[in-house]
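Workshop exercise sheet. Pairs work together: one partner reads the sequence aloud, the other fills in the structure field after running the prediction. Swap roles for the next sheet.
Pair: D.N. / O.F.
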Amino acid sequence: MSDPKTLKAAVIQFQHQAGNKKYNLLIMERFIEKAAIEGVNILAFPEMCITGYWHVPKLDAAGVQALAEPADTGPSVALIRSLAVKHQMLIGAGFIERAADGRLYNAYAACMPDGSVHIHRKMHAFEHEAFSCGDSYTVFGTPWGVKVGILICWDNNLVENARATALLGADILLAPHQTGGTHSRSPHGMKPIPLALWQQRAERKEEITAAFKGPSGREWLMRWLPSRAHDNGMFILFSNGVGADDDEVRTGNAMILDPYGRIVDETWAAADAMVSADLDLSLIPMSTGRRWMAGRRPDLYHILTEYQGYERDAMTARFSEELPGIPKR
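Structure field:
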């Protein structure tokens, strides 16, 4: 396939049902059909959208095992793979993977038009003690002459991960999330959005829109997400859950950002939605981030790979009530 100057991409936000794979896959199939009609090449669904998300921390180990599937033989990934082949589309979807060694991962499957599948395992998984953390980056070629990388939710919050993905050649970053409306321990981080507001969204449209665009939704994303695109010269496809997710409310905010960190298209609708855009691939080579990366001085960056003594595992870092205690040098 010849290298195109543009590529059509789309991102999804939808409200999954906890543990109801049949329902979630049905919603996904409908969006895939819609994307196919619109000529989409790359379609990104949210993190753990096949299984559901925030109910998982409340499950016992057996409950998590029951939701998990092998990436190569599981029926859910097999369905998405078949649709990727049918529509000659790259389709990314989040699920719980049961690896060959029995370990469980918060994983994301990028199903390719040729039937192959690339799996990214979340490197900073905190959703359940039964989850293991991935230990590698995921960047791969596509039929359209660009490389795609994947970082799941918290993976994106560490600048090193975005930079490493770019250094491995990623032109487009799939960034599936389940975020917004979380109870951050940071005083000026995200805060919960009342479930009642989501339940009454039809009659309180202005209020729910303000909440989704506010500091626990879009405003929070704008503090950091555009910089991941700008600093690394990558398009970012941000997909997210929306609506009630157990006792939290996800804010959607599905969006596509260009290599300058500009928003190409987005939504703050309090509803299931798809956002699509034509990616102008000619923006990548001379984007500010790509030009600055050419001036890197790796000899100065040894500290980035040295343990400092205050590092914590993902669950402790996410939930501990103690101060991080990062020492001053």
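Discussion prompt: The chain has ten helices and 14 strands. What would you look at next?
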